[in-house]
Amino acid sequence: MGYYKFPLVVHWTIGCLFHPVLISILQIKNKKTQDKGERSHFRNEIKALRKELKEREETAVTEILTRANVVLATNTGASSDGPLKLLPENHFDLVVIDECAQALEASCWIPLLKARKCILAGDHKQLPPTIISDKAAAKGLSLTLMERLIQKYGERIVKMLTVQYRMHQAIMQWASTEMYCGRLSAHPSVAHHLLKDLPGVASTDETRIPLLLIDTAGCGLFELEVEDEQSKGNQGEVRLVGLHVLALVKAGVKARDIAVIAPYNLQVDMLREHLCHRYPELEIKSVDGFQGREKEAVVLSFVRSNRKGEVGFLAEDRRINVAVTRARRHVAVICDSRTVSSQAFLKRLVDYLSEHGEVRTAFEYLDDIVPENYSPQNSQGHSEQGAGPKTSTTSAPKPPPEGRKSKPNSTKPSTRKPAAGPLQSVNEARVERPEMNDNSGKFRAMMVEFLESSEMQLDFPSSLNSHDRMLVHQMAEEYGLQHVSTGEGRERYISISKRTTTVSSSPVNTGGSEQIPPAESQSPAKEALAPVKKGGSSMSSGKVDLKTLHLERMQREKAKQEERVRKNQELSINLQEIAGKKHKNEAKGKTMVKTGADSQAEEDIDALISAAVQADNICGFPRCKASVTTLGQLCLHCKKRYCLSHHIPEIHGCGEKAKVQARQRISREGILYAGSGSKDKSLDPAKRAHLQRRLDKKLNELTSQRKSKKKDKEK
């Protein structure tokens, strides 16, 4: 049942009926009473009027409820303690309980006792009622009346509404197959509608597709691990949600038509902090907050990303069903396919999105992320796999040439079947994609040519995408080159440069000692080129045997280190012999040198101290020479003393720091104080007087105790 509701006419009618009675009561109270007898008479009259008021109210409510064909009430509002107690027991013919799947069975029995027939309306495949006690849920409280009746009587008592008027056919088909035995169908008016069909929305890559999967597997965007915190968050997915919402808004989709849904409250708070100030009309809620709602576009953040494959209550099928089916034209799911695929239901969702929608990786959105567990050894291992025989890649079907997989919504079988396990990580996909191998070969050839040349810096064009920039960073790390990304947006590019090498020399240069020749310390450029020159075919194809290169480099470093240790031992032996011969002469000279050095150091320290004291006594403002010895103020931001003319932070250059501190204090305390912005910490006069009285009382007690002790001693 809905909610209890009186029309406005009912309240107006009751007011007209009780108006004379209320006027009489007010007149009686306003009369001046003279004696006890008159006051007692008025009290009795007030009691009688109140009783009459109650009777008239019940009569009016009974008359209104009797004439009404439909009465709306909540489950608890339909109890015998409410207004319905004024009606006879068999007054209602039918009880309809809406959203019955979200109500406890015990609460449903309250209105069911009012009629002989009932209709239970709801979807038991969506969110169940909230049960706080796990013990009560385990003993059957979580089972709703609707579920129990369907389990007992089956399809005989069920009438299913099979035509839906909300979702695009591609969005609906997954829910229909997984939850409703494939019985749902989309009305022709909504079967193929997309975001680009909305007025004022441009046709872009985001507005032309109903399903989008942004996969963070292998990108290192793990969930936050907060101690003593049951809720979860994922900062990387927050950034991805912000970028996708930005793309939709730029295409013309209004922020009020977009919903961002996350299963965890911590993630909801992080998303609101990141997006609400830019898009005030954007709704960001948990799954429970969107039950029964709908939006043109829905962005889902699944949050969970860990090495153990834990998904928490994402394993609740009905919760995911509600989240996905809130969308009308577009659903974007941001998740770690490797983590969520550990649960069968979520794995089928990921497979469906990869087969019928478009799949993108987080590398296409974020430039500053590094592949999970990346190290030069790992990248070498992947390069070896790419350079080896292509038995696995030839059998696999070829993905689209642009690195994104977009499939039209048709009944044709997909050319690429969903993988049995989770989606492949970015590092594995890099081996399978021929166009990425071509790019890596081109970049490697450019670096080899740069290493052979005399140039110290090489700038790559800004037309590289985020994945190409990642490849350049990895290759620069392998060759021992310095690499940095500069610029923002489309102007972002990578610069690589050669490292400057220093020749290691012996600690003491003596006539008989041997120095390490400079030819032994080769530059990283020559080291990197050594294995490449051996095989012309590998250099022409832009591929290098990275394992051999790494082993040779390690052998050279080990040989150098052993040579240095041996020569240092020889030098230490020679130095000990020389030190034994010249010990006496050095002892004489040390006393003279030490006295001169100590005196010079003491003079330097005294001058430094005097300069610091003098600087501390003068205003810290550059062009001010006022003395602050007697009167000055210390700045809390730069820790310098200023005169009263320059002590304000905005004057001497600490304005930004003061502004940041003020904002932090306001956000922390939640109160904006007038004047200087600080709270008036002076005591309230009343509180001060109270504390003074307590102090005087305490002093008097202590004084009396001392007097009593003196008297006892005299006795």
UniProtKB/TrEMBL annotation:
What highest taxon heads this organism's lineage? Eukaryota
- Which keywords, in A-to-Z order, does the entry hold? ATP-binding, Coiled coil, Helicase, Hydrolase, Metal-binding, Nucleotide-binding, Nucleus, RNA-binding, Zinc, Zinc-finger
One cellular-component annotation, GO: nucleus
Question: Where is there biased composition of kind Basic residues?
Answer: 706-715
* Region (Disordered) location: 371-440, 500-542, 675-715
Quote the biased-composition stretches of kind Low complexity, using this chain's numbering: 533-542
Recorded hits in Pfam families, A to Z, give:
AAA_11, AAA_12, R3H, zf-AN1
State where the protein is found.
Nucleus
Q: Where is the composition biased (Polar residues)?
A: 374-383, 500-513
- The answer to whether keyword Lipid metabolism applies is no
User: What SUPFAM superfamilies does this protein map onto?
Assistant: AN1-like Zinc finger (SSF118310), P-loop containing nucleoside triphosphate hydrolases (SSF52540), R3H domain (SSF82708)
**Gene Ontology MF term list:** 5'-3' DNA helicase activity; ATP binding; DNA binding; hydrolase activity; RNA binding; zinc ion binding
Q: Where is the AN1-type domain?
A: 613-662
**What positions belong to coiled-coil segments?**
544-571
- Which residues lie in Basic and acidic residues bias regions? 678-700
Specify the R3H domain's residue ranges. 437-500
The record's similarity note reads: Belongs to the DNA2/NAM7 helicase family.
- UniProt name for this protein: DNA-binding protein SMUBP-2
Task: Provide the species name.
Answer: Mauremys mutica
